Amino acid sequence: MKRKIRPAEEEIGNIAFIVLFVILWYSGLLGTIAAGGIRVTVLLFLVAGLLPVYSAVTMVRRALFYRKQRADAIAYGQSQPGRIQGIVRQDVPYYSGKNRTLRYHRYYYLKVDITDPVTGVTNTIQSQGYRKPIHRYLASEQVRVYTDRSGWKYYLEDFRFKERMSDPGIFDGRPLEFEETAAGSGRVVQILFIIVFILILVSMFMEGGAL
Prior knowledge:
Blueprint: H1 15-36, H2 40-48, H3 50-76, E1 78-96, E2 101-115, E3 122-126, E4 142-147, E5 154-157, H4 185-210
Antiparallel strand pairs: 1-2, 1-4, 2-3, 4-5
Helix pairs in contact: 1-3, 1-4
């Protein structure tokens, strides 16, 4: 199974979905402008369409910033083998929407043992947080740990992934947890979101044509 699972801070996210949304958004608005001219309401929608663009640019810049830190640690930091010995799950609360609804981001942290080649002392470090339950995809506890030049941040590389999800994993003895992304629920929501916006834009276009 060939895959690349990045920590949450290095994820770019579904940029293709945002690009498609912006294309649909402005296509509908241009149709409305062509049919009925520029009005205050249309201008508001034009400005509103820039928000996801700004969000996407910020998301990409943030991911590239942290990816560069990883690249620097791999190029100039220290490297040593490690052994994954545990997983920590953490639900981080945040507020969303105009009603400030409390929600949670779930992160998975790998606990990794690294042994000093000189002293023989074993220390346990914690990985960066992953949105995906990365431990479910791993076929081996072996991993390579890179430490940046400051000595404060660790990066995991050279994961050994399963060939198939049904293959034995490294924590098979532990009870399974429900994985929100396992059934593709996120993709279903995106498809429904696109359908709704297509209908909205078609409605706007028809109203503009009527005017």
